[in-house]
């Protein structure tokens, strides 16, 4: 998981905070060390309160309903290919009612181009002091 977070930081910049449930994916000491070293705040939702993280709960429901419950995967490469196709469709093709019937990509472009948004509203993608050399799993 730390490697995936490293990749996301390289692609999109460092998040100020990660909100998560109490599942097992993020419970290791390595992940907590990653958050501490990268100065990323770590927040847990209350147990049994998925509405506190409604955005990701909605995303997970869509992923399960539209991909995981519908597809059979022959191997890891096949799963990655099908997930990439689904993710592209989700982000670039299909409009979302919560985004005023825009795709997430369109909504982000609009957000970035809005002159009333402060420059720090989105974390910059290039963080020169960021390094993965000290991380270990």
Tell me the strand order in the biggest sheet: 1-2
How far apart lie the N and C ends? 9 Å
Shape, please? Answer: globular
Structural class determined from secondary elements: mainly alpha
Give the number of helices.
5
The fraction of residues assigned to DSSP E strands is: 5-15%
Along the chain, the helix and strand elements come as HEHEHHH
Secondary structure: helix percent: 40-55%
Count of distinct strands: 2
Q: Main beta sheet: strand number and arrangement? A: 2 strands, parallel
Low-confidence sequence ranges: 123-137
Mean pLDDT: 78
CA-based gyration radius: 17 Å
Description of the structure:
The chain is mostly helical and 137 residues long. It has five helices and two strands, in the order αβαβααα. A two-stranded parallel ribbon has the order 1-2. Residues 123-137 have low confidence and may be disordered.
Question: Characteristics of this structure?
Answer:
single chain; 137 residues; mainly alpha; two-stranded parallel ribbon; 2 strands; globular
List the SSEs and their pairings:
Blueprint: H1 2-12, E1 17-20, H2 29-37, E2 41-44, H3 54-68, H4 76-93, H5 104-113
Parallel strand pairs: 1-2
């Amino acid at each position: 998981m730390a490697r995936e977070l490293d990749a996301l930081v390289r692609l999109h910049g460092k998040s100020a905070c990660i909100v998560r449930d109490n599942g097992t994916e993020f419970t290791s000491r390595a992940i907590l060390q990653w958050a501490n070293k990268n100065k990323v705040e770590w927040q847990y939702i209350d147990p049994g309160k998925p509405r506190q993280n409604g955005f990701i709960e909605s995303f997970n429901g869509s992923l399960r309903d539209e991909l995981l419950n519908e597809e059979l995967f022959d191997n890891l490469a096949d799963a990655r290919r099908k997930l990439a196709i689904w993710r592209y469709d989700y982000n670039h093709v299909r409009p979302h009612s919560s985004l005023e019937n825009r795709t997430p990509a369109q909504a982000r472009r609009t957000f970035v181009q809005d002159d009333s948004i402060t420059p720090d509203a989105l974390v910059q993608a290039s963080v020169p002091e960021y390094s993965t050399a000290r991380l270990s799993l």
